[in-house]
Every structure is written in structure tokens, then in C-alpha cells.
Amino acid sequence: MDIEQIKAKVRAGEFLVSAHADQEAADENIAIAEIREALLQGIILEQYADTGRGESCLLLGFVNTRPIHVVCGWRRNAVVVITVYLPKLPKFVDPWTRRTN
Question: How confident is the model over 72-88, as pLDDT tens digits?
Fold first, then answer.
């Protein structure tokens, strides 16, 4: 996935939030506006191959000083937010680094 394509789609309002991502956002106290901001100023940390539902990627964006991870892919011509969460232990040692052990 290409970060500039993602940002262009988000700026055009062509992004969707899956039901799963909506629930995860509510659980983590992340507003839709924060997801949008994270997508607009984020960087791609990981790319995932097509596993039957298309390619996807993990983005890291900061809203103020709060790191937000967004996993997104494509649904037709729109960006779809698959899940969203705050990176923390035990999976992440910091916003950029996945725990390896």
C-alpha cells in the first residue's frame, strides 16, 4: 500500500471504519477524528501481503503526543480501517517496535 494514496483517499473522505475497528476505537477511547488524523500524518510500519482479502498495512500516527496504530486496507476504491489500537506492552515495546520474544 502507498501512504500517499491512503492520505489522498482520507482527504477526499473516501475511508470507512469497519465494525471491528469501531468497537476497538470505543474500547481504546479513540475518536473517529483521531483515526482520520493518524491516517493523514502517519507512516507505514508494516506491509501485509494479500491473504485473501487484499493487501493491508499497519500505520503509526500521532495525535498530539498519543501514538495510534491503524491497520487499513482497500475496500473497492476506499481505504478501510480494519482495526485501531494504542500500541503498548505486551505486543509493542514502543510505538515503532514490535516485541520479539
Answer: 999 989 999 999 999 99
